[in-house]
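Schema walk-through. Below, the input block comes first and the output block second. Nothing else is stored per chain. Lengths vary across the set, and this one has 339 residues.
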Amino acid sequence: MEALHIQGIQMAESLQQRTMSQEKVWLIVTHMGDPKAAFLLFFPLSYFTCRRTGVALLWVAAISEWLNLVFKWMLFGERPFWWIGESRLFVNNPPKVQQFASTCETGPGSPSGHAMVTAAAWWVMAASLGSSLYSRTHSVLLSALPYLLYAGMLLAVGLSRIFILAHFPHQVVSGTVAGLVLGVVLSRRVPEGRPLLFFVCCSMGLLLGALLLHAGLEQLGVNLSWSIALAEKWCAHSEWIRLDTVPFSSLTRDCGALLGLGLAQYWKPGGWSLPWAPRALCVALSSMGLYHINRLPLPIRPQTLFYSLFFLKFAIVPQVVMVLVPGLVHLLTDKKKKD
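--- output ---
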């Protein structure tokens, strides 16, 4: 592994030296590949394009991020920004690399969550768009374009994670492969129209399953907070360490989103039927609403309160996208038609 890590540092150094002028582009790409972007950005966009695709994307994103958390707890992957210092291999000849505000994530590094969740969630969109294009045009070439864009975006996200020293190349590759497999498998069975009890059981099952695994590993003497200590030690700026990058934050996000998905389908089975123009308005309003919900400051002490509120925040997301905003737009457009 040491040779693999050294090669990864060399690749990151070369990438930074050659493309530092595109720093802002890399940072935008890495934010687009953030798992929470699947919930806050791509979910409303896909939902108002095709209801089934939106439900599938949220389902796939939540399950794949939960599995990524489990894999990270089991694999103990290093991250480049702390491995450089911990390895003591570069004391006399430190690599010419720099950190960024997005670098200092606190969870283990393997496999890459950005690559894994992005590959899984974006597969849903690519497959849906490709199928739609083929049914309309019967052109294999046109229907292949979403898959080419999918591959190109995954490559860009992977390189961005290497560029900012968040992951080694092999972590990006393993995350991408795992995400692709999950996207293909999970998108075949979309829980559209399932009863609320199904989502309650999924949400609580994933939450309790992760907590039991965590407790079991701790009982075996495994320190699952090791990565947090290293991130705090080697991060260039302490303010770059954020509680929403801690593994338990992703856990509460996934469980909250699944419960919210069940509640949204319970409140309004089948969703709202809207023409294309009101749907575009729904995308804009939902995106604005989720942007402000995401910006809501949460108290970080006590941490139990933070995680509880984080859970509620992402349980609200499907309500906004699937119930509140389309319901409001339907009410306004229907009233306008009657007038």
